[in-house]
Structures are given as C-alpha cells and as structure tokens.
Amino acid sequence: MQAKVQKISWLLVGGGLGVLLATGASAVADKESPSPLPINELRAFTEVYGRIKQDYVEPVEDKKLINEAINGMLTGLDPHSAYLDAESFKDLKTSTTGEFGGLGLEVNAEDGLVRVISPIEDTPAAKAGVKAGDYIMKIDDVPVRGMSLNDAVGKMRGKPNTQVTLTMLRKGETKPLVFTLTRAIIKVQSVKSKLLETGYGYVRLTQFQERSTEDMVRALESLYKENKGSLKGLILDLRNDPGGVLTGAVGVSSLFLPDNALVVYTEGRASDSKVRLTASSEYFGRDGKSLPPEVKTVPLVVLVNAGSASASEIVAGALQDHKRAVLVGTQTFGKGSVQTILPVGKEAAIKLTTARYFTPNGRSIQAKGISPDIEVEEATVNGVNAEVFRVREADLEHHLSNPQGGEVKTESKPGEPEAKLDAAKLKKDDKLIKPKTKDVDEAEALRPGEISVKKDYQLQQALNVLKVQQVIHRTNTTTTTTAAKAP
Predict the structure, then answer these.
(1) Containing H/E element for 301?
(2) CB-based contacts of 248: which residues, under 8 Å, 6+ apart?
(3) What separation in angstroms does the CA of 31 have from each of 21, 73, 74, 271, 274?
(4) Interior CA angle at 422 toward 418 and 428, to 5°?
(5) CA atoms in the 13 A half-sphere facing the CB of 272
C-alpha cells in the first residue's frame, strides 16, 4: 500500500489549489468506448480561431490562443481544474515543500476578482492584517478583473525583499484598503504546539506538507516530555488549514487511529482513481516509535471551521467516523474532489478533477463539508463575525455536485446568535460548555499565529469539552479495570 502512495504525491487543498501529481495519464484514461468527434463544434472552434487571427485589432500569437482555449476548457468544468504553464507548474511543485517566495496567501478566483481564502500564519500578508474574505482589486495598480488566477498569483510572487501593493475590498469597509507588502521567502511551519495547562496539550496544523507527519510526531513528543510523559487530553487545531499533501493527512490520522483503519477512499470513472488508504505506522516510521501508546487513546478534540478544507476534512472525517475525536467549531469548507496533474508537453500540465473522496463511513464531503459534533461560532470583533464573510465550496461557480445531496453554502442569518453549542451530544453535564456570545474589540482580538485560550473563544470551549471528555475517559477506564479484577 505504501509503495503505491510513494509512487504518486497526492495534494488536496481547498480553494482550487491542490492536486494529485501523477506520472502518466493512466489515472484518468476513459475506459469507455470513445464518442464520435463533434464535427460541428470543432468546425465552429476553427472558424473562431481563424477570425481572431485575421480580424482581431492586434496580432495574436498562436501559442496564446491555444493556451487560452485549453484554460477555458478546464476552468469551465469546475473551480479546481486548470491549465498550468511552465511557471505555474514549477510554483505548484515548489509550494508543496513548504518554502517559496511570495506574500503568504491562499487565494481563489471569484466574480472576476481574486479572493483571499486564508493568509498563511507568520507571513507578510498575515502580519500586515490581510484577512480571509478580502477581495484583491489591483496588484501594483494593475486591475485584477479579467486577469487569470495564475497570472495574479505570478504578479504577487517575486524576489524576496521587493515590494508589491495590493488594493483590496473588505466587507464592512466603505473604501478600498491598500497594503504595501514586502515579499519574503515563505517558510511555512506546518505544526505548532503548546501546553495549554498542566496535562492538556495543543497542536496546530497550518498546512499538510510532505514533512507534516514527522513534525507532528516531534510536537507530540515535546508535549509528552514537557508534561512528564503523560497527557490528560489533546486538542488538534485544523482551523483555516486549506489542505496539502494527502500522505500527510493519512499519516497524521495514523498517529491517532489503529493500524489498518480506513482513513479515506476515492471514487472516479477510471479504475486507477479508485483508491483506499488506511492508517499505518509506516507513514511515520522510526520517528513514531518513541511515542507512548496512549497517543492512540488520549481524549482528543479537533477544532474546525469554514477554512478547514480537503486534507483537513479527510482527517476530521476519519477521526469523527471512527469516534476517535469530538469535533468542535463550525461547518468545514467542503472540498471533496481529487485533482490530478497530467503533464502536457515538456513543461506544462493540466490539473484535472478525476475523483471524489469519501470518509470511512461513505460520506461525500464535496460541497457539503464536515459538520462538527459541537457547534461553536468564532468570537465576533466589534459585532462582526468573520465566519459570515467566508466562502465555501458550494459558493463557487461550476462546483462539482455532491452525489448524496445536502450541499452547504455560506449563509448569514440576521439576528442569529453569534455562538451556538449543542452540549447534549456529549451526554454529560453541560455547565462547562454553556453557550455564550463573545464580542471583542480589535485590541482583544487574536493575532495571526497567536495561541491564547483567553482570546480564542473556540479554543476555550474546545478545552472545556476536552476536560469533560477526559472525565468520561477516566470513568470508563476505571470501570473497565474494576470489571477486569472482579472474580
């Protein structure tokens, strides 16, 4: 199984950024009988091509026309299929290593503009105050409308220590915002950890990279060592994690699930797109040997929100289906499709949607997402809840449908309480996790990359839920031990 995974590097990222890197076209070869060529449509294409070459106001290179035609075919399918020229293909491969030059933004195209899905922690964009949901209008005074997403990303990237000016629209602001940012080498630290209080650990995963499983192992080792070899409970924070390398997601899931437990499976038209991936200690190898066995059973709470996409949803869905963790937060993004990178020529490639993925219990996440066990909204800043400004998969034009129905779009309901909590699902006293509307001003708001139980309302509630889970776990363990000793 692992040999098959090593042969191809899978990437799953929300907002149209993630893919499966494949070595050939067999993964998407249509095994059905080929259809007759659409002669009339091809004739129309040829006629339009000729008219442009002959009558357009300026000469146009054949290469540009063909590239734009290819890109149009792909972008018309769904938000995640696209044509990658040589530079875009190179950028994609570079970004999976966790180090690249730029501003630190996860973006997608929407309504002719570029929308920020999430600023990456500890990057120029996050430090300057760019927020999820912001729309980029101009890049260095060049309007974005009409520009392809690849071109927009290319303009934002550049040599370190050079500047770029972004003009942005933000809901709630009457005038455009202008940010002058200095490009930097973006080194994404995918895993951060902290001991919240004695016995309770916290691990934040910002993006699934090739080394994320190893980084997670080191973070857990550090937490156990800091707490003298044991933990009462653990919080895994996947909020605003747009996804990344699928093997990282399966590896992280494997840390908390028993070997051979199903993590995710995919279904597509081609036989090669039908894959089942299970938990295995092989994903973390020697690095995981020193972890205590309690990692598999320690009470676990997973934090999610609308910025948790794709690989994050795979982990959350697997842990939820196996009843290994309690999910706290809000509905996730809903990126449940697999993209395959197929080489075109010597340097370019196409990114093509080839399959949907499903949780162990057979749930399709596409355009729906993962529902938390306990719903807790984010704290509001000056009366405004950032969650209503987010975009989900179902909001994207031409999004792939969910075969099981139940698609979930971003929806703002006037007068709806800012914090909701269903404590009944714990079947335990709910005094620790009572619903509460939390309103903070900018001075009290959580800063990018900051880990603070005091400022982070969702984290507060996750810790309370974890303490309840720990009590249940301890009670169950005592009961089992007593029953084992009974004559």
Answers:
(1) strand 300-304
(2) 190, 208, 209, 210, 211, 212, 213, 311
(3) 21, 21, 20, 8, 13
(4) 140
(5) 17
Q: What's the CA gap between 105 and 340, in Å, rounded?
A: 22
- In degrees, rounded to 5, the angle at the alpha carbon of residue 260 between the alpha carbons of residues 325 and 233 is 25
pLDDT of residue 266: 95
425 pLDDT more than 90: no
Asked whether the predicted pLDDT for residue 382 surpasses 80, the reply is: no
The residue annotated as part of the active site, out of 335, 368, 438, 467, is 335
- Residue 412 a catalytic site member: no
- In 299-383, which residue ranges form alpha helices assigned H by DSSP? 311-321
Kindly report, residue by residue over 194-233, the tens digit of the pLDDT: 999 999 999 999 888 888 999 999 999 999 999 999 999 9
Residue-range domain boundaries for the chain: 99-187, 191-241+290-337+362-479
Whether 321 sits among the annotated catalytic residues: the reply is yes
Pick the CATH number of 191-241+290-337+362-479 from 3.90.226, 3.40.1350, 1.10.8, 2.70.50: 3.90.226
Average pLDDT over residues 427-431: 36
Q: Span 429-458, mean pLDDT?
A: 61
* 382's tokens: 């000056």
Mean predicted lDDT score pLDDT of the chain: 81
- pLDDT value at 260 more than 80: yes
244: Cβ contacts below 8 Å, ≥ 6 apart: 11, 12, 13, 18, 96, 190, 207, 208, 209, 212, 310, 311
Q: Is the confidence at residue 23, as pLDDT, over 80?
A: no
CATH number assigned to the domain with residue range 99-187, chosen from the 4 options 2.30.42.10, 3.40.50.1820, 3.65.10.10, 1.10.274.10: 2.30.42.10
Residue 335 annotated as catalytic: yes
DSSP state of 487: -
Q: What is the DSSP string of 414-473?
A: TT--S----GGGGTS--GGG-----EE-TTTSPPTT---TTT-HHHHHHHHHHHHHHHHH
Task: Catalogue the E-assigned strands of 210-274.
Answer: 233-237, 243-245, 262-267
151-158 contacts, C-beta under 8 A, 24 or more apart: 152/107, 152/109, 152/114, 153/88, 153/91, 153/107, 154/87, 154/88, 154/91, 156/102, 156/103, 156/105, 157/91, 157/100, 157/101, 157/102, 157/103, 157/183, 158/101, 158/102, 158/183
AA identity, residue 121: E
Which residue out of 310, 312, 337, 364 is catalytically annotated?
Answer: 310
Give how far the C-alpha of residue 456 lies from the chain's centroid of Cα atoms, to the nearest Å: 20
Task: Give the model confidence (pLDDT) of 84-127 as tens digits.
Answer: 888 778 777 666 565 667 898 888 777 778 988 778 878 899 89
Which of 78, 272, 321, 395 does the annotation list as catalytic? 321
